[in-house]
Design brief:
heterodimer, A: mainly alpha, 3-stranded antiparallel beta sheet, two-stranded antiparallel ribbon, 8 helices, B: alpha/beta, 7-stranded mixed beta barrel, 12 helices
Chain lengths: 217, 579
């Protein structure tokens, strides 16, 4: 379903390619009739699918993986800031708390949003979308599609923390005076971000409308 | 599942002309139900479980440590170390319910559990400056940390500890023995005071506390190996705190141990040579701590017999600890002095408790050999019968300190007060000074009974009469005349003095000459009498002559008179025409 069609609210919107038995090649975007050529694009020989293959399964698997990995990402320290040889490893939450205590509210907000709100929000939205599709929900298809778009948009910014730590580790290396070392948590956090990206990529938003199509059609 | 639902309507609904490929695909989809993608969350789950397992398996024991103060301790930062190896971290610092102490919660690394037994100790390492030295300077920069001294392995498990205020002086792994010294007062001993053996520091005072009955101080000390072999069961310990200043016949003697012990005290010990070698002291042996080396010999006498003495006079200058002497040799000590008052008789008396050490006196038999002493009570009883009496004597005239002197005064009455049931009593006699003062008092009392008033009145009357007699004018005159007479006499005597000497020489001759002269003058006198006697013619003539002379002189006078008046008459004669 094209984005333009999505924006039309509630109005009947003609037939979908899937209902027409048509599919677009993933690579060369050649519109082919499904099954006509044994599931392969006649032009570039790429397997052709009407929808993303095994979308719900894959998304679910990745979402669950991300949720599992998000636990150690929060429990393990993401970095250790050492000043004059003394330092304590800080986790994401303790880092945010530390920033708040230091009076750096804006920075604390950025870290909080980038490290906690965004990943958790993304996972929550994905779970909601998955559940809604799985239970063939007919409610708010537009809103759900919009949610998915927002999800994709924020996806680009998910790695802010990881980048921040990488930069800090590279910059703040002044020996005894001050050193920042990455912690194990940052690995898990990076994994969460990447897996979430894959999960949102694995999700096919057209499934939201397929249910409506099937019900109305 | 859902994909199947999707594909089926896809195949059935709408475009029937499409060749029947979908069923095959649907099967493929069905197989994908167990898609490899699910390996990813499985792996994640396995990793997560492994992490959880690892965390829990690596988690060491959690302990709770109570401290009086949490100075320098920061939750989540302060480490627990042993031999400078980090073995734990403080997670939580908070006050206990009644705000009297601080409770620290700490987690330790695995492997420490078996050392967390009741003998394990925790203390805070901070910079410490003491007379023994400076320690923990490193913590000035790094911050305080907790030190764990592992307990003995195999003990009961313990998770709650009470932190020490100061580091233990003896580490669990140090070799040696702990001893307990009992002393009436602590003196200048402090934690860390050295223990010397022949001047070598061989140990330290670990601490002190009161004995259970609160009457003595228990000083805990540690003797390091290999010196702990020097501590035997008969070893004597004495305090070497401060300066030992003694005045003797050979001058002033000042003795001090090291400078450190001057400030923080110290303990020295010595094992006397004995014929049989005494057994080595075991851990936690109890010894007596003597105030100085001299008292060791004093305290060597174990047998002490208490006696009570009652003194009626003043005991000013008698102190607890004063010696009890017999013929100048100390045989005991005064241990207590109390005043007793009898309300009925309004009588005060001073009870003095003494301890006689009979072992100080050696009994010998007729052959001059040492013999076993009989019962000291019996002996003293016989001695009392023979006149043994206690008496207060001045030991030091400068300070007026008294001591109890036992003397033999046969014949004095045995005066016993008998007020005390617990201790046998020794009879006392007043001190020499007291005797003198009693005599003086009696004398004065007698003197007071003499009627001095009457005597003085009589005396006054006598004196008045005498005064009258003496001051009478006759007496005065007499005295004056007497005075003059005496003066005259003195003058005469003085003159006589001057004359007597030359005269006396010629007195003999003079006397003879005088005799001759007297004879001659007698003759002369007779002649003279003949010549000038009243009947002698010379006498008559002389009378006449004198008459003549008288008239002549009258004439001459008148002539001179007229001459005086009219000197010209000598020339012009008496007639006086010119007049």
């Amino acid at each position: 379903m094209s984005r333009a069609a999505c924006k039309h609210s509630g109005e009947p919107y003609g037939s979908s390619a899937r209902l027409a038995g048509m599919a677009s090649c993933h690579v060369c975007h050649l519109v082919v009739k499904k099954g006509s050529v044994g599931g392969y694009c006649p032009r570039c020989k790429t397997p052709v699918h009407s929808r993303k293959v095994d979308s719900l399964n894959r998304t679910w698997a990745l979402v669950i993986t991300a949720i599992i990995l998000y636990i150690p990402a929060n429990l393990y320290p993401v970095m250790t800031v050492s000043k004059f040889g003394q330092g304590e490893p800080s986790t994401i939450v303790s880092g945010v708390m530390h920033l708040i205590h230091s009076g750096m509210w804006p920075l604390a907000m950025i870290v909080f949003i980038a490290s906690i709100i965004v990943p958790v929000g993304k996972l929550a939205v994905l779970v909601y979308l998955l559940l809604s599709v799985q239970y063939s929900s007919l409610n708010h298809p537009h809103d759900r599609t919009r949610l998915y778009r927002i999800l994709e948009m924020f996806g680009h910014w998910s790695m802010v923390d990881v980048f921040l730590i990488s930069i800090l580790v590279a910059l703040v290396d002044m020996g005894f005076l001050a050193t920042i070392e990455p912690g194990v948590g940052v690995l898990y956090f990076g994994a969460v971000v990447i897996i979430t990206l894959f999960a949102s990529r694995a999700f096919d938003p057209r499934l939201i409308w397929d249910v409506i199509d099937d019900n109305t059609g | 599942m859902t994909t199947l639902d999707e594909t089926d309507p896809q195949a059935n609904m709408g475009f029937q002309d499409i060749p029947p490929a979908p069923p095959a695909r649907a099967q493929v989809d069905g197989k994908r139900n167990f898609s490899v993608i699910w390996i990813i969350p499985l792996v994640a789950l396995v990793v997560g479980c492994w992490l959880v397992y690892k965390t829990y398996s690596e988690k060491g024991p959690d302990v709770t440590i109570t401290f009086k103060s949490s100075e320098g301790i920061i939750a989540g930062k302060t480490l627990i170390k042993h031999k400078d190896v980090t073995i734990g971290i403080i997670n939580d610092v908070r006050l206990d319910d009644d705000f009297t102490s601080v409770i620290l919660k700490a987690s330790l690394v695995p492997g420490v559990e078996k050392y967390l037994t009741p003998s394990a100790k925790f203390w805070v390492v901070r910079p410490r400056f003491s007379l023994q030295g400076v320690s923990g300077l490193g913590t000035l920069v790094s911050g305080a940390y907790l030190e764990l001294e592992p307990g003995k392995k195999g003990g009961k498990k313990k998770r709650e500890f009470r932190g020490l205020d100061s580091p233990p002086l003896v580490r669990a792994d140090s070799q040696g023995i702990r001893i307990l010294l009992t002393t009436p007062t602590l003196g200048s001993l402090a934690v860390g005071s050295p223990v010397y053996y022949r001047g070598i520091p061989v140990g330290e005072v670990l601490g002190h506390d009161l004995s259970p009955d609160k009457r003595k101080v228990h000083v805990h000390a540690f003797i390091k190996a290999p010196y702990h072999w020097m501590v035997r069961e008969n070893t004597h310990f004495w305090s070497v705190s401060g300066i030992d200043l003694s005045f003797g016949a050979d001058g002033v003697r000042v003795q001090t141990a090291t400078l450190a012990s001057l400030l923080i005290g110290g303990v020295a010990f010595e094992t006397p040579e004995t014929l049989e070698e005494s057994k080595a002291a075991v851990d936690e042996s109890v010894f007596m701590l003597h105030p100085d080396r001299l008292t060791i010999t004093e305290n060597a006498y174990s047998q002490k017999i208490p006696f009570i003495l009652y003194f009626s006079g003043s005991v000013r200058g008698l102190k607890s600890g004063a010696p009890v002497e017999f013929r100048g040799i100390k045989i005991g000590t005064v241990t207590d002095i109390k005043m007793e008052f009898e309300r009925e008789k309004t009588n005060f008396k001073v009870a003095v408790l003494v301890q006689i050490e009979p072992e100080r006196v050696v009994e010998i038999d007729e052959k001059g050999e040492l013999s076993k002493m009989g019962s000291p009570y019996e002996l003293l009883e016989t001695l009392v019968d023979r006149g043994l009496r206690a008496q207060l004597e001045t030991g030091n005239y400068l300070t007026g300190q008294l001591y109890v002197n036992l003397t033999l005064k046969p014949g004095t009455p045995i005066t016993l007060v008998g007020g005390n049931k617990r201790f046998p009593e020794l009879p006392t006699v007043p001190s020499n000074f007291e005797e003198i003062s009693t005599f003086a008092y009696n004398f004065l009392a007698k003197l007071q009974s003499v009627p001095l008033d009457e005597i003085s009145k009589e005396l006054v009357a006598i004196l008045e009469g005498a005064n009258k007699t003496v001051n009478a004018p006759e007496v005065l005159n007499t005295i004056r005349s007497l005075d003059e007479a005496l003066v005259t006499l003195r003058g005469a005597a003085e003159k006589m003095d001057g004359m007597i000497e030359p005269v006396s020489e010629d007195l003999g001759e003079a006397a003879k000459a005088a005799q001759v002269a007297l004879q001659r003058s007698e003759e002369l006198m007779t002649l003279m009498m003949e010549v000038v006697g009243p009947d002698a013619p010379l006498n008559y003539r002389v009378m006449e002559l004198s008459q003549e002379l008288t008239s002549t002189s009258r004439s001459i006078r008148s002539f001179i008179d007229s001459m005086n008046r009219k000197p010209e008459s000598l020339v012009f004669g008496k007639g006086g025409g010119k007049k």
